[in-house]
Structure formats: C-alpha cells, structure tokens
Amino acid sequence: MAIIHRAREMIIPALLVLLSCVLKTIPAAASADHALAWSSASSLPDELRDLGVRALIREDAEATALASSDFGNVSIDVDAPAAVLYPSCPDDIAALLRASYARPSPFPVSTRGCRHSIRGQASAPGGVVVDMPSLGLLAGGSATRLSVSVDGRYIDAGGEQLWVDVLHAALAHGLTPRSWTDYLHLTVGGTLSNAGISGQAFRHGPQISNVLELDVITGAGEMVTCSKEKEADLFDAVLGGLGQFGVITRARIPLVPAPARARWVRLLYTDAAALTKDQERLIDVEIGAGALSGLMDYVEGSVLADQGLAGSWRSSFFSEADAARVAALAKEAGGVLYCLEGALYYGGAAGSEPDVDKRVEVLLRELQHARGFAFVQDVSYVGFLDRVRDGELKLRAAGLWNVPHPWLNLFLPRSGILDFAAGVFQGILRRGNTGAMGPVLIYPMNRNRWDGEASAVFPEEEEVFYTVGILRSSTPASSDGGQLLRRLQEQNEEIMRFCEEAGIGCVQYLPYYAGQAGWEKKHFGPTKWAKAILSRGQRIFNAPLA
Prior knowledge:
This protein is an alpha+beta fold. The protein has 18 helices and 19 strands.
C-alpha cells in the first residue's frame, strides 16, 4: 500500500518527455498579458507572490506559446499553459508544487527540458510549465550539476542535463555509462521518465535499469532522495513513470571503463525471418549459447523501403556505387530490405578485448545476411554514440527538422514479430506508400534485463520482445494543407487496428492515447492502473482530482 499512499500525493503531473534542446538565455519576466487560469483578478495567486519567485515566472504570449509546442508539431486540442517557471534551483520547483498542492483545486504543473514530446505530453493546460534547462543555466552553468565520482564509479547528473554532456563528463575520467538512447541530445530526466532504450539494452537493460539513486520532488512538493534501498516505492514508480510521480532533479548513473573505438557494421537481409533470427542469436548472452552470443555490444535493425533505401540522411553509410547495388537488391526482394546494425567496442580504458578484426570475421561468417552486402566502418566511440546528431544537422540545414513527426513506437512480443512484419512492413506501409521520410527501426531485447518493479510497461509474457519505431516525418502543413500528416496518422491507426485484429499484444512506447479508456484498457491494464495519479498532458485521466 505504500506506493498507493505515495501516489495519492502525486496530484501534480510532472511530465518529462524531453529530447532535442537548444539552450537559450532566460529572458527577464515580461508583463502579464496572459491571465493565469486559477485567477481572473490577479496574474499570480498570493501563494506564488509570497514565494519570492516572481522574477522567474513569465506569463506573456511568447513564453506560453513556446511552452505549448513540441517536437511532434502535431496539432492537438490542448489549452496553452498560463505561465512558465524558470527555476534557478530545485527549491523553486518544490515551492511551486507546494503552492499548487495546498489549493483546494490544484493547478496543473508539467516539466519540460527540450520539448521532444510528440503529442503534447509535456503540456500543462491553464497551469505552469517548468523550464528545466534553467536549472543548469541559472545555477552557475551546466558543469555545476554534473559530478563524477571516480572511486565510486558513478556520475551525479541534474535531471535537466543532456546525455551528451554526461558522456563527455564521464569520458574525461576514462569512464562511461552503459546504457544509452540513439539520440544523446535529450535530458536525463526525460529518458528516465520513459525507459531510455537503444541497441545496448539487450545486454544492460534500458536506462531505467541503470540508475543507483534519484532526487525527486513529489507532487506535494516534498524533496526526496530515493533508491532501491531507500523509498524504493517512489524510486520504482518514477522510473518509467511518465512523470506521474514527481520531478527528477538528480540521477546517479553507474559508470564503467570506456572503450575508445567502435567497429560499426551494417548487414542487409532480404526477409524479416533471417534478420530476426540473427538478431536473437546476437542478443542471447547466456553462456554456451553459440559463437555469436554477446559478440556485439550494440544490436539494432531497420526496414529499408522506397525512399528509405538510399535517399535519406541515414544512408550516408553507403557509397553511391553501394547505393545502386542496394537498390537493385531491393528490387529483386520485392521492394523491402532489412538491415542489421551493430557495433563492437574496443580499445581505451575498457582494457584488452579479443581482436576486433577476428570478431568481425566471425560475424560475417556466421550471420545469414545477403552475401556481398556487409558494410563496415571504424569510428570513435563518441562518434558512434552521437551519430544521430549528424543527421539532425543535415535535416536542420534542409529545413526538415521542425516539421510534423507523427511517430509510432511499439513493443511487441517475439511471437508476433513476423506476422507484424508481413502485415505492416510488407503490407500497410507498402500499400499506402506516402513518400514520407524517416527510419523504421526493429530490434529485440531481453526481458530479464528490465526491472519489473519500475513503472515502464512492456510485454512480459515472453523472454524476448521487440521494439518497432516508425519514425516518419511529414511536410509542413502549410505546404500541403496537412494532407500527408493526416495520411500518416491514419496509417498509424491502421497499424494499431491490425495488431488488435491479429492478436499481437503490443503496447506503445512513448505512449499516447486520446483518453482515459485507452490508458486503462490498452496500456496499463488492471494490475498497474491507479486512479490516484493525474496528468493533464498525458490525458491519462479525464479530470483533475480535488
């Protein structure tokens, strides 16, 4: 009952769905021209005026409009916040939450770092959005909220810190975190509020399985340090909890000796069965599981079709000559190819490893890819981990970054992945070819590397489950009246209907449901559903609790 008691205090949502961040200078508070929802007669309630944080609050249309937008750029029916708080320290956030909690009808509060939510999940309709990057800017600089303990083998990182900065701070001591996401320019608190997954998760689990300790501000404004040994119920609830249980202001992340280089491998396949069989051989890290067992440090995969074959920013791995061969292979295979992407780390502080060239030889000999379609590069460890940044910069230069992103991320049981591939990759996406750009990811993870006590929802029936990320971009609505965006959204809905009709028990990652019924029936299920938790931006509940 401890977690339910704690949950009843979490009346104020603190959503941390955060991803790409451009740090900005915090402007001075502007004059109030946007009256706060809690009072028509005053721009600030007495509780906030008495806190002495007035200079840190903006209520002008520019600030609230920015706080209402996100990476998704998908129009949703959500009211704008009434104000934005720029905290200089965690105490400012705690004071705000205490003021809301003390009211008979608490006003909504959400936190946002780099506005990479895709469906308005970080919104606070009529309430206050907390600008988390201000913690690093106003507290004396980002470096003051990153601290490495070499002896303890951990790093303390503010919840607003970017993972790329965590990486460089650790590498200065020859150390590195073990688990990552594919894109490092996102916040610590943001990924830990979801799960934080990438190609290392098969071995080390998601980022939420790699946390030693948290500082959390609860919805009641309490500042709590928690771990598996102390306040474990709160610790487990916050990790993967979609911001429902509080604001992460600090995370202690374990570190290991860092490698120096990565041998980056891409192998092409003409059918999904061969790809997934090889992926599962690579992620089987049990002793005696075979020559490929645990040979790679990173295992992912993708679907290449039409424009995705060689025309996108992700295909720079291939030369022009290779791209022509890839296109010919795709034509022979019916228009769809699959790519196994992996990396082998070596060198540096990680110490001696088996010869990387011999490891690659084993891979190329044992894996059942299309012969002649193996592509290998040698890059720095940092260059590999931060590889998506190059793609981002190319998209920004082409004016294709700040466009609608109607992404669909799913977790699927292993038993359903081939039916999904046939129905979606070979079916829905091919029949309804929209011409939209963007990667389609597919790769497996081991369930036993996930902490079942955390709040993240994933298939628990089978030992292996897959993540599928259909990460497509639309054109700006101004260019086609939103037609492409609507087609992509309709296609996402068709994919979800297909899964339901085919009996594939998928759940959404970075989830979005239009209302309470979807969250209760399709996501959490009866065992994880608790009506004491509120979040406006997530739309998990229909109304706030009094």
